[in-house]
Fold each of these.
Amino acid sequence: MNRKWVVASRPEVEVQAHNFELKQELVPVVPPGAVLVKTRYLVVSPPARMALVSGGIAGRPIPIGATMRGSGLGEVVESRHADFAAGDLVAGELGWQQYAVSDGARRRPVRKVQGRSGLADSTLLHVMGSGGATAYFGMTVYCRPRPGDTLVVSAAAGNVGMLVCQLGRLQGCRVVGIAGSRGKCDWLVNELGCAAAIDYKAEDVGERLNQTCPDGIDIYFDNVGGATLDAALARIAQGARVVLCGGTSQYNNDLDWYGPKNYFNLVYKQAEMAGFYVFNFADRFEEAHSRLAALLENGSLIYKEDVLEGIEQAPEALMRIFRGDNFGVQLVKVAD
Ligand SMILES: NC(=O)c1ccc[n+]([C@@H]2O[C@H](COP(=O)([O-])OP(=O)(O)OC[C@H]3O[C@@H](n4cnc5c(N)ncnc54)[C@H](OP(=O)(O)O)[C@@H]3O)[C@@H](O)[C@H]2O)c1
């Protein structure tokens, strides 16, 4: 049997358990030209909330009754596709389910991936997946760090943020992380080498940015948008780069975004603000992943996984992200 989560209703604000329904069906029959993939892990990330209402970058929400969208890592258990064989490891749009049928391209696209010796296969969903590529291209193409730059990172203890903090430090930046608990802030300073960390739930972000960035912010890597983006914009240095990766603080209200009011500081400081989409760099992912793998292997880069067990935990994983309960990348382990 295949257990899968379908969209039952649209959240009004926060995602709730009743927005999903767990269904059971026979494992689908594999048509010619397709493969059957058994899901091992899902990675759960904030844009899943937008997929339920505005539709996010896809521009249309997931229909009611359809399988919830989600990236995963799995193993081909049956292949009727010339390019895949049983036993292949694949990653891609598997959905929140135990078994997915993919034609490798249009219908639930997946691509073959290969674990690296010494690295857990789960890294293929974060450091060696799109999270790692996001951090890498966001930093190299958009942030363009210079030694001595002050780099501020929001959602700094999450999947993308934890990697951005470390890549910044390795490039000689002074890194200030923003996160939602004392424990996360201590980890940012003690384990990731941030110069300082701000607990935005307990501290005044503007005041703490004044203290920790006395010469202004050269680079702001934004994962949350909203009031934190505004606080950063008010404190940018001459020629700063403000890089919009995500806007998690706004995803629960994604039909009515908060507009930053301090944007004109970009003019006063002759600074730039740019958004980017990681899949525009899909043909360069190997470059990102080979560099990140080398950093993992020589111990310069670390990561933290937060793993829930069982397909039944997928909605809870998404709700944890918006409560800030995930510490590191949020995974759901579906099968060994
Ligand atoms: N542009 C791209 O191509 C691209 C690619 C990948 C990801 N992204 C974006 O990057 C961002 C980070 O993604 P991720 O997968 O690495 O997620 P993540 O950081 O692992 O998880 C989200 C974190 O956001 C924080 N958060 C939740 N609600 C918040 C709120 N209201 N205000 C401020 N912070 C809040 C929580 O941490 P705290 O405890 O710190 O609150 C939570 O742990 C997301 O916005 C995502 O959409 C963009």
Amino acid sequence: MPALSRRSALILGGVGIAATAVGGTGFFVNQRLSSGTSPTTPSGSDLIEPAEIRSVSGALAVDLESSPQQVTIAGRDVRALSYNGGVPGPTLRVRAGDTLSVSLRNGLADPSNLHVHGLHVSPENNGDNMFVTVAAGDSFDYQYELPVNHPPGVYWYHPHHHGFVADQVFGGLYGAIIVEDPDPIPASRERVLVISDITLDSTGTIPSGTSMEKMSGREGDLVLVNGQLTPSMTARPGERERWRIVNACVSRYLRLRLDGQQLSLLGIDSGRFEAAQEVNEVVLAPGNRADLLVTGTAGTSVLRAHTYDRGRSGGMMMGRESFTAADVIALASFIVAGDDVATVAAIPGQPVPRDLRTATVTARRELIFAMGMGGNMSGDMNGGMGGGMMSATINGQVFDATRVDTTVQFDSVEEWLLTNTSPLDHPVHLHVWPMQIIEQSGQPVKNIMWQDVVNIPARSTVRVRIAFDDFSGRTVYHCHILDHEDSGMMGVVTAN
Ligand SMILES: [Cu+2]
């Protein structure tokens, strides 16, 4: 099977081709477009990165305004939601020990707030406080003090007001946060790739999800990189690039491949590996991030999202029976040409990650993530899924901001068994404190794996350990399929 030429990659990434067979192994399906529409900009335009704002002398102060804006997405004029006029919002670059101050103005018609996803900062007061409501038209000043030993890596920000999260993120509200390395990792170029998905109707408006879409977790028709449809990147052979990848999709899992190129994974979320790992693919659940090194090999490669099976509905209510989509989606092209570049310097060794497998555990508990009929067909459930037909619960309960579900002892290590009884995967996110994955489906994990979004496959279990240190206070854990979170699959945890 011949390699995809740049031209065919552009065509495949473009419009109007429903499906093109590739080598008989399957179908390479073009991104779906809403019927009756066609983008005005050809794909393959250069990747544009979000504006960047860097901390200076230990401080970064930024004004963020969320508002409905006319923006260009996938080459079309679209009415979307935006931070500071862009989709994504600006990239915030900070260092361990910095103070990040964000003055959020909510220019939306609905309540909102801000979550700095993955940052190890206080959840109290004007920190990463999930109980803050910023009403339409109001402002709120957040201040985040990063510890001096804050892990470097890729983080992100997005709204987190219960009941509105999926709509606001799907609408375009997300941006990257980079915590720089104390010792730089040599790379010829750094790129921020915020991957999101979106659906546009014929008028360039983002439709609100149907109740069926919300039940399964909505997936947009278009998968974008920095708001662009199949942009292109160029490099020279031998160049080592550093890609900061964010999965900002509301529900879509990304099984990313860049065949033909050498990929080396520095870490996932705040979990930096002791040594970079050579990989063929990277799977990111909604909310996960990858810190990836790409060393250029001459030729054109296509960054693709391959199929990922996140389960089956098994129920008559679901819009789709299976989420094993046949589609392989082209996200971007990577064109490596020109003279070879001299080999770049070696990657400096990274600290040995903390390992809680030998820690003293003060408490063990189980969280059961379940979906099902709510047992109340009258439509007055708290779930907010419409019609009151579906429940998305943790330990049998939907979210209640006035209830504390889990009280942990500050400065202790706990072991949590995360159990998913439902036929769909749930990516579980705990704020403030990252989780070390120690067991998957009853099998011990050999490597030291730290993540802040941990996928619990359908009808499966994952065991994690958590060190509730550095910050006390009240925050949340929830499913990062944001439609599930909005429907109630979220709980409150207090460390004190
Ligand atoms: Cu879920």
Amino acid sequence: MIQVQDLTKRYGTTVAVSSVSFEVRKGEVLGFLGPNGAGKTTTMRVITGFLPPSSGKVTVAGHDVAEQPLEAKRHTGYLPENPPVYTDMRVAEYLAFAGRIKGVPRRELRNRVREVSEKCAIADVQRRQIGKLSKGYRQRVGLAQAMIHNPDVLVLDEPTAGLDPKQIIETREMIRSLAGQHTVVLSTHILPEVAKTCDRVVVINAGNVVAEGTPQELTERLQGFETVLVTAEGPEGEIKAKLERVEGVTLVDQRDIANGRVTFEVHADKQKDVRGDLARAVVESQWRLLELRTSGLSLEDIFLKLTTRDVSEEAPAN
Ligand SMILES: Nc1ncnc2c1ncn2[C@@H]1O[C@H](COP(=O)(O)OP(=O)(O)OP(=O)(O)O)[C@@H](O)[C@H]1O
Ligand SMILES: [Mg+2]
């Protein structure tokens, strides 16, 4: 539904986005994840036709955003990072206004306003002035505005930024409910967001795509090793030595010791399930095994790995 091919965007001498390629399939929710300054907003502004690319090609629903901007825009709804605020307008009035700009036929306008207001849970504030709404409600008005012409594609730049935890959950649910009917690409620098809301993730750092996949695939790909936490009661040095001799184990790190109970972090080859052998090693030596569990990398760890790796690799080698 969206194809981004070799997109580069420069601001003067700054390369904000460098040769980025990815696609968003029909009906999926794609998360565009990256730290501040990664190039998320820039990419989204090119996709929505607000910014011309320096090079590369972007198509939305088969229309080149540079060559057929009107057709592409007809298929796209955009919630910008800082939505323009028409603070004096009332909600219903503003949505009708947005609809007219986007070419919604006059006779359908009232119905469209009602529909998006219900979807975005703002039916109860239709007559309120936008400037007097809370941030969360204003964000919903922004989302409703993006959907007013019933576009196939929704581009949402940090849709949950600045919301309270309850509003974040509501917004995520709303976005999930749009999947299938709409193709959604949303940007965020918050990890749990993509795990909870997105079918697939593109991770961007310093203008480059550094990873792509489902949240689960990313986790699996990056786990070069499996980590097992072993807690036992006994002489820590001996236990450590014994665990190190288990086949497939690559590293044993003492994590914690209290009241004679010691916890080790054991790294092993990815393909090997060493848990049974670890348990046997402890029990055979008559030490008490108190706990044994795997501890995968959290998405947080992965994100940090991905977004700090490039920086260190790019450090001048002198
Ligand atoms: N109008 C502009 N002129 C010059 N440089 C810009 C402009 N807009 C963005 N940049 C630069 O381009 C890079 C990418 O910015 P962008 O806003 O796309 O990042 P982002 O991923 O959206 O970040 P954030 O999470 O902070 O919103 C940054 O280095 C930024 O300073
Ligand atoms: Mg941004």
